[in-house]
Amino acid sequence: QIPNPELKPERSNTIEVGWRMPHLVAPGGLPKGLSLELKAYYTFLQNAIIRTDFSLPNGDDFFINRGDSLFVQANANAERARIFGLDLSMQYLLGKHWLLRAEGHWLRGRRRQQAPDGAFLWLPQDHIPPAYGRASVQYQKGSWQASLHTRFQFRKPLDNYAVGNIEMHQDGYTFERTGTSDNLEQTPFDPTTGQFTGVYAWWTMGLNMQKELGPQWTIRLALDNIFDQHYRTFGSGISGAGRDLRIGIAWQME
């Protein structure tokens, strides 16, 4: 990746609206009944910065380094882009000591990108994760606290990945989706189709427990990814941790 002397700054303007259902508070500070919060936002991007194929000052689009052919890329400006999404969170008091919490996030992005023939196409924006969220059931009574929680992420299909290079042919366009900041090439590869698949959907479950042994001592236990699921968050080339057990004792000075 090389510098682009013609790169312009990216500018954004965002509109956001929200709605919240008020709730009463029960003894102990827990919400009484159902509480909901919804946010929606829309971002306008001008001169959106994308990564695309580029060339060296001499016109070459690759060079040889230690026997390897390295293709040249640079940050460049798309004409404009739009990003929009929803955030939803809720909590509900299931009983005197039980609380349900959940949150979810959904967003999409499209940018106006120029093809080699001069036409402008609306294509996926990069850095847009698939829908994701978490949910938990919490218990609290006296010196005991416990939480059973799950994290999840939906699948991001290949068609929702950003396009770095556009090629023309008689039947239309061919989109090259590798080499962008979406890191498509770090997702699983399907040898039957000869293409990367994009990130898979996944979920994990964990358990946290805590007990106060006195005014100064607390013992904690946490078990993450109970079912030892293999998962990888969007944009990451590193798989998440497997089953993980942690035990700790905390002492607080007066």
- Which sequence of SSEs, written as H and E, runs from N to C? EEEEEEEEEEEEEEEEEEEE
The amount of helix comes to under 10%
Approximately what portion of the residues adopt beta-strand conformation?
over 45%
Q: Give the overall shape, derived from the CA principal axes.
A: elongated
Poorly predicted parts: none
Question: How many β-strands, per DSSP?
Answer: 20
Number of helices, where a helix is a run of at least 4 consecutive DSSP H or I residues: 0
Specify the structural class: mainly beta
Q: What is the terminal separation in angstroms?
A: 55 Å
Global Rg: 24 Å
Mean of all residue-level pLDDT scores? 87
Report the sheet with the most strands, covering strand number, pairing sense and barrel closure: 10 strands, antiparallel
Architecture overview:
The chain has about 250 residues and is mostly beta strands. The protein is about 0% helix and about 55% strand. Strands 1, 4, 9, 10, 11, 12, 13, 18, 19 and 20 form a 10-stranded antiparallel sheet that branches. Strands 2-3 form a two-stranded antiparallel sheet. The protein has a two-stranded antiparallel ribbon with strand order 5-8. Strand 6 (about 60-65) and strand 7 (about 70) form a beta hairpin. The mean pLDDT is about 85.
